[in-house]
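This part of the workshop introduces the protein records we will be handling. Getting from the letters to the tokens is the skill we practise here. The record below serves as our worked example for the rest of this section.

…
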Amino acid sequence: MGLRIKKSTLCTVLMNICRVLLALVLVASGFVKAVDPKGTMYKLQEYLSAFSIDMFSSEWLLLFASILAAGEFLLGLFMLMGVYRHFVASLSFVVILFFTLLTGYIALYDPIPDCGCFGDALVLSNELSFVKNLFLLLFAAVVFFGRRRFVCNVSSRNRWAVVLYSIFYIALVEGMSLVHVPVIDFRSYKVGANLRELTTAVPDSYKLLSLYERGEESRYFGEDTVPDASWNFVEAVSVVDVKGREAVIDDFSIIDWNSDYDVADDILSDTGYVCLVVSDFVEEASVNRIDRVNDLYDYCLENGLQFYMVTASDEENVELWQKRTGAEYNLHWADKMSLRDMTRANPGLLLLKDGVIKGKWTVSDIPEPQLLFNPVPKEPFLAFLDKALQKWYSWLLLLVVPLAFMAYSDFAAMRFGRTAKEGEKMKKKTSDI
């Protein structure tokens, strides 16, 4: 016999508060995974490696990562809109229960550094992730047992519009992030990032204080404050004035194969343009449109610009890559995790100027060299649209406004339709009299 929730307004309100909170977490978690499907795939690879599972190719994992992100997003959104309440409530409880058990195991044995619940947007410790999922499991249980009290924001006959738009929206997000670069970049290597600052640790700043005593009273005085003769000097102490910080990026290292020389400082100190072509593994890289990389190298060579291609592959695969592509440039080595943070494309291009990332492209999107270094100004509307689509709140508006319009239209149709029917009944009743 199922648990019966007391029929009262308070129970309904509390259940729907839990529903909204759980739905918002699922939507946020699914969205930040969907804007970076490859990042989600890399996290799945970490999980499989931790459990010694090696039976899925990268292509299958990328497909599963995309489905997982979209499913989590749609589950939360359908819960928020109040559609398919029985199915959504049941599935969400099962999903949250699974992830609670998984994060509990991770918190206990620590096989991976973080669970990846919110991608790179918010990194939680394994212990905090488990505690978070315990609360979500409580919310999911309340929603499951009180699913009949869902407040539906759209009627059953019009929910198809919500479903179709939701699927279109998340497919658009994932499609753009897979074909091009992620629509929103939560990593340190995003466009506009100053790599000089991010790779530099700032030490603590200290100031000198002097301790004086007068009777039983003791007090610290700064360098610019001199106490009167009634105070007796005890000692001088150095205290932290401004707290420093560690380097945000502490693994930026690019090694020349031939000399074992780290060229990272040369890249960051260059005040001009630097082209950094990144491929985590060249044996897995796409050779479609690779002529754009070769053309870019020729242009840089002719104009005295710095060009580097970086990979984590071994020398044998590097030689095969050079034979396949006719590459005349030398390849450098870097850690694969660092390269995957730089770009999700394989290969991809980072354009730096004076240590600042000016742009990121997949190999298919690399502009002609003349336009890369001397871009033609876009039309005001296109420039505004391009910039807006890189902001999370633009995608939020693109989601909320159409869904709110659908919900209001559905409400208005039902309200005015009911009013019209009541009017017809009253009119008929009057005529009969």
Q: What stands out?
A: DSSP finds 14 helices and nine strands in the chain.
